[in-house]
């Protein structure tokens, strides 16, 4: 595949001394969807902001379609569309007016037919004459996507596009993103949600504390992150684990009243049924059970520790 | 040159004016009319002619300058501050536009609005006093130059300000006093020698004086000096705007 965005040793230190990015390097392939995962303050938005021209880098280089984002800013920015994290819109402008404004700002001649198509694709055509302040949060989010697409970009940055969005709208948004990819647009999105990355991304990058600690194909990473735990609250205190249960990945709590089983959700079998059969055979009863997936924060901490 | 971007910014800003006609046009016209009523009719009737011109007519150039300066500053400062305040400036910063194009869009719109306002005030003045314009082209030249220069100044204030208080600080505490004390309502010759000297340090005096000369051929300072001062102010503002975009001051970091 051909590289469309090439980031080399990119660093950013803000005026107050905070280092938001530390020598980040990444190649983004034409036509792929790459998701950047990371906790708040990881540097995801700063990375996107530099590529789009909103923030000046402290050092490093970014090439978009082989052109430098600073020296050839006109060429590179013409290729990029950005959907920001916050719902930052004018209040009194109309939907059609603001999308037309965005197209003009990016140096494109007016094309009402194209804007009509975008608004229809994003289910906003009925609202074209409405003032932006009358739109719901979900509609504003779609409007920001329409604005970002108004100049027909070949690269689209989505900065946490589904933050604070309900499940239904989130799935609608995923459909929109997938349709864009089908049309050949390269998509870079940042998110807190593993399931979002799982649903739409080809590759996943994990950022923390200004560093890109890994970039992998989704399948490989989901396998790593796919660990889940079954927690059993026992009826009676368990002094020692019977030898017959050794084949299971079990952990007994300090007070002997809780049994934790770690399993792989991506595996062919979870082993839960066998475990429950073995427990019954050993006469180990339980009052309650629950399953728990490691939070993204926990996974990040683990990944950071592993990377050191 | 990204002409579509300049056009987009310009139209966007002009559309904002159309949405706020009461605030943008009617309010300044009403306040200027009140100045004519108070200074021109009520007080002006008791003041003898100034350099052969009736007091009511004498204050017309000063009143136009007063509105032109304050509105150029407020239009341009609000124009660039508001996207910063709402966060929509991300779009401007990520667009393939250069410094000159952004300035042309915002300052062009702010200056256009001020010029429209100036023309309306001039027409309004015609209802109160008999008007004569000795040098209409020089008058127009001064009008355009002042509108552009002070719109640039307003743009700088809008970039510098990080809250609404700062946005009003310089216009209210510095510009308005300078305009009132810059010979808008009187000739510097009417002051004592000491205050005449003090007034010479007020840059607005040179604008009002030059503008008044284009109407009645009377001035506190020569027309050449007035022109040089406004050009110097224009050049200073352009230099500051260039520096702002070069460094990303209060915009990109």
List keywords for this structure.
heterodimer; A: 308 residues; alpha/beta; Rossmann fold; Alpha-Beta Plaits; 2 domains; B: 253 residues; mainly alpha
Radius of gyration of chain A: 24 Å
What structural category arises from helix and sheet content of chain B? mainly alpha
Question: How many E strands of chain B?
Answer: 0
Determine the N-to-C terminus distance of chain A.
31 Å
The total count of strands of chain A amounts to 14
The most extensive interface, with participating residues per chain, is: A-B, 36 and 26 residues
The helix content of chain A is 25-40%
Inertia-based shape of chain B = globular
From the 3D structure, determine the CATH topology of the largest domain in chain A.
Answer: Rossmann fold
The global form of chain A is elongated
CATH class (first level) name of the largest domain in chain A: Alpha Beta
Mean pLDDT of chain A: 85
For the report, how would you describe the main beta sheet of chain A? 6 strands, mixed
Helix content of chain B: over 70%
State which percent range the strand residues of chain A make up: 25-35%
> How many distinct folded domains of chain B?
1
Poorly predicted parts of chain B? none
Describe this structure in a few short sentences.
The complex is a heterodimer of chains A (about 300) and B (about 250). Chain A contains ten helices and 14 strands.
Description of the structure:
The complex is a heterodimer of chains A (308) and B (253). By secondary structure, chain A is of the alpha/beta class. Chain A folds into two domains: 3-224, 3-Layer(aba) Sandwich (Rossmann fold), CATH 3.40.50.300; 226-296, Alpha-Beta Plaits. Chain A is built from ten helices and 14 strands. Chain A has helices at residues 44-52, 73-79, 95-105, 112-121, 137-149, 167-182, 194-200, 218-225, 272-281, 296-307; strands at 3-13, 19-29, 33-37, 59-64, 67-68, 80-83, 155-159, 186-191, 203-208, 211-217, 227-234, 250-252, 258-264, 286-293. Chain A has a six-stranded mixed sheet, sandwiched between helices. Chain A has a four-stranded antiparallel sheet with strand order 2-1-4-5, covered by helices on one side. Chain A has a four-stranded antiparallel sheet with strand order 12-13-11-14. In chain A, a hairpin with a 2-residue loop joins β9 (203-208) and β10 (211-217). In chain A, α3 runs parallel beside α5 (137-149). The longest helix of chain A is centred in the middle third of the chain and has 16 residues, at 167-182. The two termini of chain A are 31 Å apart. Chain B is globular, with a radius of gyration of 19 Å. Chain B contains ten helices and no strands. Chain B is 77% helix and 0% strand. Chain B is mainly alpha-helical and 253 residues long. Chain B has one domain (3-42, 49-247). Chain B has helices at residues 3-19, 21-43, 55-86, 89-94, 99-128, 136-160, 164-180, 193-199, 203-216, 223-247. At the A-B interface, α2 and α3 of A face α1 and α4 of B.
């Amino acid at each position: 595949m051909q590289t469309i965005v090439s980031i080399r040793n990119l660093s950013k230190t803000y005026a107050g001394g905070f280092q938001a990015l530390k020598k980040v390097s990444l190649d983004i392939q034409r036509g792929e969807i790459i998701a950047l995962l990371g906790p708040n303050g990881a540097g995801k938005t700063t990375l996107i902001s530099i590529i789009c021209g909103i923030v000046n880098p402290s050092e490093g280089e970014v090439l978009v379609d082989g052109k430098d984002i600073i020296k050839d800013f006109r060429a590179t920015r013409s290729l990029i569309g950005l959907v920001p994290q916050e719902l930052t819109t004018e209040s009194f402008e109309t939907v059609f007016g603001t999308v037309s404004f965005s197209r003009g700002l990016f140096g494109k001649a007016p094309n009402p037919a194209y804007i009509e198509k975008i608004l229809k694709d994003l289910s906003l055509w009925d609202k074209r004459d409405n003032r932006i302040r009358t739109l719901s949060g979900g509609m504003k989010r779609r409007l920001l996507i329409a604005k970002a697409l108004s100049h027909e970009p070949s690269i689209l940055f989505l900065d946490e596009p589904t933050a604070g969005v309900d499940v239904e709208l989130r799935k609608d948004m995923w459909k929109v993103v997938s349709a864009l990819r089908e049309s050949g647009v390269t998509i870079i999105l940042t998110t807190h949600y593993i399931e979002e990355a799982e649903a739409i991304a080809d590759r996943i990058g994990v950022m923390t504390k200004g560093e890109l600690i890994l970039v992998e194909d989704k399948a490989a990473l989901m396998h790593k992150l796919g660990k889940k735990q079954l927690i059993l609250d026992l009826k009676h205190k368990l002094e020692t684990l019977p030898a017959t249960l050794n084949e299971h990945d079990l952990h007994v709590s300090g007070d002997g009243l809780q049994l934790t089983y770690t399993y792989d959700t991506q595996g062919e079998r979870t082993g839960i049924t066998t475990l429950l059969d073995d427990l019954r055979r050993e006469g180990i009863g339980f009052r309650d059970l629950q399953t728990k997936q490691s939070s993204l924060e926990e996974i990040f901490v683990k990944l950071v520790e592993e990377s050191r | 040159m990204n002409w579509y971007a300049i056009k987009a910014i310009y139209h966007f800003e002009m559309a904002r004016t159309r949405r706020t006609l009461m605030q943008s046009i009617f309010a300044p016209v009403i306040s200027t009319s009140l100045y004519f009523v108070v200074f021109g009719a009520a007080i002006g009737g008791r003041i003898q002619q100034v350099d052969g011109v009736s007091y009511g007519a004498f204050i017309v150039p000063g009143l136009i300058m007063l509105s032109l300066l304050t509105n150029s500053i407020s239009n341009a400062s609000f124009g660039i501050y508001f996207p910063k305040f709402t966060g929509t400036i991300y779009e401007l910063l990520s667009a393939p536009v250069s410094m000159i194009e952004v300035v042309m869009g915002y300052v062009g719109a702010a200056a256009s609005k001020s010029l429209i306002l100036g023309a309306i005030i001039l027409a309004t003045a015609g209802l109160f006093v008999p008007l004569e314009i000795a040098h209409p082209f020089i008058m127009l030249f001064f009008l355009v130059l002042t509108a552009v220069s002070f719109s640039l100044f307003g743009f700088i204030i809008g970039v510098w300000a990080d809250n609404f208080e700062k946005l009003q600080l310089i216009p209210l505490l510095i510009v308005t006093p300078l305009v009132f004390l810059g010979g808008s309502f009187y000739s510097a010759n009417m002051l004592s020698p000491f205050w005449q000297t003090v007034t010479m340090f007020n840059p607005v005096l040179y604008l009002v004086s030059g503008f008044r000369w284009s109407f009645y051929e009377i001035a506190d300072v020569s027309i050449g000096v007035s022109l040089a001062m406004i050009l110097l102010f224009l050049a200073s503002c352009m230099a500051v705007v260039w520096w702002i975009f070069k460094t990303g001051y209060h915009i990109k970091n």
